[in-house]
Amino acid sequence: MDDATGNEAKPRVRQLRVVVEAEDYGAALAFYREVLGLPEQESYAADGGALVTILDAGRATLEIANPAQKRMIDEVEVGRQVAPHIRLAFEVGDTAAVTADLVDAGAALVAAPTLTPWQSLNARLDAPADLHITLFEERGRLES
């Protein structure tokens, strides 16, 4: 995007971080770092037992959907309304394999991998730290 002078405008926001409070910090960290495979970027400890680990989840986007779109996605992927107000979605290379790994590590399967009308193979899980997540594998792009 160009600014008023025709120069490329620098984005105001450089990174999206989702901060999640996890009662069982160790279990949540192991699930997302070791099982899902999000590399550790940095971690910190402070007084009073305060701990935080920042995991690299690749490129971040913020997807804004109206209630009708949220309902439609739930219907396509799950067959019923299940998603809370915020749902995290992770693009993976093999939805079926990663889903199996996450279930083996303690995630609850909400919906098995399903091919969507937009040619994405999506699975839904309830994961540690009380997160509802989608795993998606892009199978192809629809022509517009």
Task: Please give a structural write-up.
The structure is a single chain. The chain is of the alpha+beta class and 144 residues long. It has a single domain (25-138), classed as 2,3-Dihydroxybiphenyl 1,2-Dioxygenase, domain 1, CATH 3.10.180. It is 22% helix and 28% strand. It has three helices and six strands, in the order H-E-E-H-E-H-E-E-E. It has helices spanning 25-35, 67-77, 95-104; strands at 40-46, 50-55, 88-91, 108-115, 120-127, 131-138. It has a four-stranded mixed β-sheet, covered by helices on one side. A two-stranded antiparallel ribbon has the order 1-2. Strand 4 and strand 5 (120-127) form a beta hairpin. The protein is globular.
Keywords summarizing the entry:
alpha+beta, 144 residues, two-stranded antiparallel ribbon, 22% helix, 2,3-Dihydroxybiphenyl 1,2-Dioxygenase, domain 1, 3 helices, 6 strands, 4-stranded mixed β-sheet
Topology record:
Layout: H1 25-35, E1 40-46, E2 50-55, H2 67-77, E3 88-91, H3 95-104, E4 108-115, E5 120-127, E6 131-138
Biggest sheet character? 4 strands, mixed
| % residues in beta strands | 25-35%
Level-1 CATH class name? Alpha Beta
- Helix content range: 10-25%
Spatial strand order of the main sheet: 3-6-5-4
Radius of gyration: 17 Å
Overall residue-averaged pLDDT value: 93
Question: Which structural class should the secondary elements be placed in?
Answer: alpha+beta
Number of domains: 1
Helix tally equals 3
